[in-house]
Write a structure and sequence with these properties.
By secondary structure, this protein is an alpha/beta fold. 35% of the residues lie in helices and 27% in strands. It has 10 helices and 11 strands. A 6-stranded mixed beta sheet has the order 5-6-7-3-8-9, sandwiched between helices. A 3-stranded antiparallel beta sheet has the order 2-1-4, with helices on one face. Strands 10-11 form a two-stranded antiparallel sheet. Helix 6 links the parallel strand 6 and strand 7. Helix 3 crosses helix 4.
């Protein structure tokens, strides 16, 4: 069986027309696989190329080179698109719709019949904490509630592949935990999940594999277990540390690793991290 996602040497360059600004190489030779029933995290700072990679997977961006397949098909294939659930980092529903009517709209776009759409809409609204707001206009929602609606529309048609771009943006700790639980539930039913995030605690909680990218290129990849097992060291950086604090740390045997740029950086292991922070 084909993997849910196969990316081979993906490269995408943005060129600015009518401008002397240099071209931006958003993704540079990225390769990865997401197997069915597994969760892979695409990790990196802002501007690393995560969203461009996702847009290539859903057919919104055409690669300059490399190959991309989704569920064994081209990203532009309508049959593949019907099997994908996508939650964007910032979800923009029509503000005049309610949760009920918004999910009916997304259900029709996904090819669901009216009865299935209504049943699943109510179930997802309750699961995502939107049951009491089912007939409220979306324009009255907070950012966190809007993100929950975005997750509901991504799950409505029970996709075989779920792609999530920073899904916990705007969510409180309870909402972040809910997203993590839903990801694990989707994995259990055999759905492949690609999660773009820079919140490493969420990644460690939910993902099987991690691909870390910087400037569009992969710099680290492996299973979460391998990466966590790789080291027991922590780097702690303090900005604007007082002389007294620095003196106390040095008296305790924590010589600085780096003092450049006004920062004071030391290294310790997990057993002593709490005492160092205190």
């Amino acid at each position: 069986m084909d993997p849910a996602i196969a990316i081979d040497a993906l490269t995408k360059v943005y060129r600015r027309a009518w401008s002397r600004s240099p071209a931006v190489r958003a993704v540079d030779g990225l390769s990865l696989r997401v197997e069915r029933g597994s969760v892979l995290a695409l990790v990196g700072p802002n501007g690393a190329g995560k969203t461009t990679t996702i847009f290539a997977l859903i057919g919104l961006v055409t690669p300059d080179s490399g190959a991309v397949t989704v569920l064994g098909k081209s990203p532009g294939d309508l049959a593949a698109r019907r099997l994908i659930g996508f939650q964007s980092e910032i979800f923009h529903p029509y503000r005049f719709l309610t949760v009920r009517t918004a999910l009916r709209f997304y259900g029709r776009l996904s090819g669901l019949d009216a009865r299935s759409t209504d049943e699943r809409s109510r179930q997802l609204a309750e699961r995502l904490g939107l049951g009491s707001a089912f007939d409220r206009r979306v324009g009255t929602f907070s950012k966190g509630m809007t993100q929950r609606l975005g997750l509901a529309q991504a799950l409505l048609h029970q996709p075989e592949l779920l792609i999530m771009d920073e899904p916990t943006t705007g969510l409180d700790p309870q909402g972040r935990r809910l997203v993590a639980d839903l990801i694990l539930e989707q994995k259990a039913r055999g759905t492949a999940v690609l999660l773009s995030s820079h919140i490493l605690s969420d990644v460690e909680r939910t993902c099987d594999q991690v691909v870390m990218i910087r400037d569009g290129s992969p710099v680290l990849s492996g299973s979460v277990a391998e990466l966590v097992r790789g080291t027991d060291e922590w780097d702690i950086e303090m900005l604007g540390a007082s002389d007294d604090a620095v003196h106390e740390l040095e008296q305790a045997g924590y010589a600085p690793v780096d003092k450049s740029g006004g920062a004071y950086q030391i290294r310790c292991d997990s057993a002593t991290k709490a005492s160092v922070l205190r």
